[in-house]
Amino acid sequence: MGAIINSRQGAEPEVIVVAEEWRGYAIAALLARSGRRVSVVTLGKSPALPAHLYPSFSFAHGPWLYFGFEKGGLADTLFSELAFSVPILRQEGYYHRMAPPLQVVLPSQRIDLSSDREELLDDLKREFGPSYGGIRALLTELDKNDLDIYPAIGRVSSLEPRGLRDRIAIFREKWNQRKSIRGSGAQKALAFIRHHLADPHWESFLGLQSLFAFQKPLDQMSVLDLLILHGGLQRGAIRLVGGDARLNQLFIDLVRKYQGEVIGADTPVKILRGRRGEGEVSIEGRGTFRAPFLVVALPESIPEPSSGAGELWVAFEASQEVIPDPMRETLVLSWARGASPIHYNYLALQLSLSSEEKGSEKGMRRMVASALLTPDEMQAGRFSEIEEAMEERIRWLLPFSEKRLRRLTSSHFMPQSRSCSLLDPSLLNSLRLVDLGATSLFRASSNPAVYVVPTSTPGKIDRLSFVLAGLYLTKVRT
């Protein structure tokens, strides 16, 4: 790692960052590295929900990164800015590439979504023979669109301004990218797909991927979503080993390395409007912290509470010998032929890696299955019944498992907007969108010192767009 560039302990903070996971901590590290005096307030789990509702599996959420690990990509830019290179990250075992990134299992089809184009086309031709011509035409059209969209969602601008001509070129590049993003975001994916082919099996196939990637059904996907999914899988998936906890520690260590202060907050926190225009963070039992610049960087940080799907996770342990050879480390599948026992006909299954098997009996593999539930289903509390149905489906997937599959534990979670409960109403009601093109954040008009950054979106795809927000914030002066 690079040398420490700031030595500013004992000084008042210029920036307070309120965060609860690694993406927010990464923004804090970017600000500290840029020369700001940073205090990061690390939140515990929401006191409004019991601890058992949160997933506690060390490998259940990856997290997943589809974009940005190539030269100039968002991950490469993030770690370069923090003097911690992507090659070092891999050498130290933080991630590995999945091959294939994902397997899709339908009642009569099993398709590996290989990042190798020819292997993928061979699988699609075998499983969707009569529709293959339309599928190939659709993929070709997606490839063309991807050339316009990907630079805006997966990379930092390749142009470095050296004068007026470069600045005009960057402006035009960003203008065209925003136009492409808005246009693709306004188009419905289903209409785009059906222009090339109408095949219910293909739509079921894409529907499982949509639920996996974005936690929404195919009919709610935009062409932009489709391009993100297609482009990400083509570039290859990265799985970060050891779950969120490992990355949390990495970025907290980087904040400290660049002389940032870390304040743990296990008691209720409130973000207030400072009397002198600064941001204030009140921590119950600890007092009030103030700074001229305050960033709230939380998952689901949106002006209104999320009404999306919740997830039910169930952890299993199975003997390695009952896991069939065609089964990949991550797959999605439909429940079965006929009606699903829940609204969404979707299950996801992720196998642990050998490096994540600590505590397991030799020869055993752990896995986490997840199902999406509507808010009504979450409130109805049919968890035991659904867990039984999930186990039955997994036994179908693992023939001959019998007593060699056992359920370990489960948890469930309905995403909520933490910033809605933390922000003073005068701040919350004054949030205004700041459009950055490939990403966006919010600024409080009643107190321009306060920014709110959504650091993640539902689903398993992570585009690392928070990096663009973090880079933007390093240039903001209050």
Q: What's the overall geometry? A: globular
Number of discrete domains? 3
What is the count of β-strands?
Answer: 20
Proportion of helical residues: 25-40%
Strand order of the largest sheet: 8-2-1-12-20-19-18
CATH homologous superfamily placement of the largest domain: FAD/NAD(P)-binding domain
Task: Tell me the CATH architecture of the largest domain.
Answer: 3-Layer(bba) Sandwich
What is the fold-level CATH name, i.e. the topology of the largest domain?
Answer: FAD/NAD(P)-binding domain
Distance between the termini: 30 Å
Write up this protein.
- By secondary structure, the chain is α+β, with helices and mostly antiparallel strands.
- It has 3 domains: 15-48 and 241-303 and 417-475, 3-Layer(bba) Sandwich (FAD/NAD(P)-binding domain), CATH 3.50.50; 109-235, no CATH class; 310-413.
- It contains 15 helices and 20 strands.
- Strands 8-2-1-12-20-19-18 form a 7-stranded mixed β-sheet, with helices on one face.
- The chain is globular, with a radius of gyration of 23 Å.
Using brief descriptors, characterize the structure shown.
3 domains; 478 residues; alpha+beta; globular; disordered N terminus; 20 strands; 7-stranded mixed β-sheet; FAD/NAD(P)-binding domain
